Amino acid sequence: MERKFWGFVFFWWVLLAHPLCLVSANMEGDALHNLRTNLQDPNNVLQSWDPTLVNPCTWFHVTCNNDNSVIRVDLGNAALSGQLVPQLGQLKNLQYLELYSNNISGPIPSDLGNLTNLVSLDLYLNRFSGPIPESLGKLSKLRFLRLNNNSLTGPIPMSLTNVTALQVLDLSNNRLSGVVPDNGSFSLFTPISFTNNLDLCGPVTGHPCPGSPPFSPPPPFVPPSPISGGNSATGAIAGGVAAGAALLFAAPAIAFAWWRRRKPQEFFFDVPAEEDPEVHLGQLKRFSLRELQVATDTFSNKNILGRGGFGKVYKGRLADGSLVAVKRLKEERTPGGELQFQTEVEMISMAVHRNLLRLRGFCMTPTERLLVYPYMANGSVASCLRERPAHQQPLDWPTRKRIALGSSRGLSYLHDHCDPKIIHRDVKAANILLDEEFEAVVGDFGLAKLMDYKDTHVTTAVRGTIGHIAPEYLSTGKSSEKTDVFGYGIMLLELITGQRAFDLARLANDDDVMLLDWVKGLLKEKKLEMLVDPDLHSNYIDAEVEQLIQVALLCTQGFPMDRPKMSEVVRMLDGDGLADRWDEWQKVEVLRQEVDLTPHSNSDWIVDSTENLHAVELSGPR
To answer: Does any domain span residue 6?
Structure first.
């Protein structure tokens, strides 16, 4: 009886002490459950969304902060259909709403304008209809808004021009109409795409709106008929003719000046006469060589951020004060080099995702090829793991988990949402960059080969870094998405261990020089604690480390077809499907051991001796 009494007291103490947490969790859980009941879920992706649980933070595809508030909902590519619900506007702390690549229809609820902490809203590749809500203009923290490939109608809300935080805005492939704004956030460096909306018009589209200058030419000047009269009349006529002629010649100049003043120069540019007139690179800024020389102090060695197989990267500061990274490509001087460069730049500019390094602009001269990117303040994962200064704190475990998930999302976008798909071919910790918030940004994919859906391999020279190269790529020169998956798995092991993928120093301890072999050896000896980066000082969760290692081993299987797709990796990292996939893999491994089909050590197919190091190290970090 006494135990029941104190249990009753404790219950009411928790309720009274933390009423806001309980109310918030209930409200958010109810909102998400309303969403579930309004959606058709053929693959049972939402099976864990149990309305009897007070806290939705235990549900798959839902991420919460330390206060148990929902900050992320990830339901991309989940075969969902149905409609959204206005209750989503109750998720006051939501930062990421990912519903892309589904079959969701109906209107976009105006209540989403209440999500004032929203950073990313991805609703692309669905069947949404109706207008874009004006209320989205209240989302002052919004950086990524992608509504492309839907059936949205009506005008682009002018309220969106107030969202100055926007970095990416994609409204392409809809049925929008009216004038495209060219002020506020629309006149900054934001990559704005509004192609394939046939009824949009305005200066930034190149299509005139009815009756709007400068596209409507001034009416032709019709000289007045001669009027008989005295000298004063003749003078008046002459003056009128002169004024009319001046107006006739001045009007186009005035209109052009007005257009140039309103036209956002960061999106479109005029190709100089001496350049190829067929260059059309849309929303990128074309920098002059002089601008980039000034920005980098004439490409001073003191500004070098890194060296790679394709050239050097310099830190620069533009005239507006913003910091950039300028990649100065090596000049190959091969026939058709200009066309190849144009194709490459177009490809880079089309791959826009918050976990991909965004191309800001380019420069092309007869002797120079340069790409301009935003500067990543926290360097690369490799530099943070192994080259950080003494005063810099090591990457903590939650940050490493976030890097693993973010980089998987970026690679998944390259594979599944670019057409043609993009294969990175050199996924490693040195090519995963970190922004101001330590969010993972995949870099150096601009020189990757494009993959057509009908052509699943490329027979060119192998590019990559020793220790990261998939066996089939090294032996045949044929790459696919699965070669990137292998590299990603090695990068996960780098994140966990803090070690290099290939390190001769391990020979001193009679250890494997290949990170993958070293990890497998320790796992076989059940020495999990020896795998984890000592810099973490045991501040990690064993179960989460094991899960990340499981994903890494699934990604680095010897046979490409056995490896998961990057979209599957994203789901596994979100907590969906890893246990089943791991159990299946273990059964196969037991069977292989029983029939003596254990694959050869990775070191057999990576390199025969240390003399081959120079030949295999074909490209470096961004």
So the answer is: no
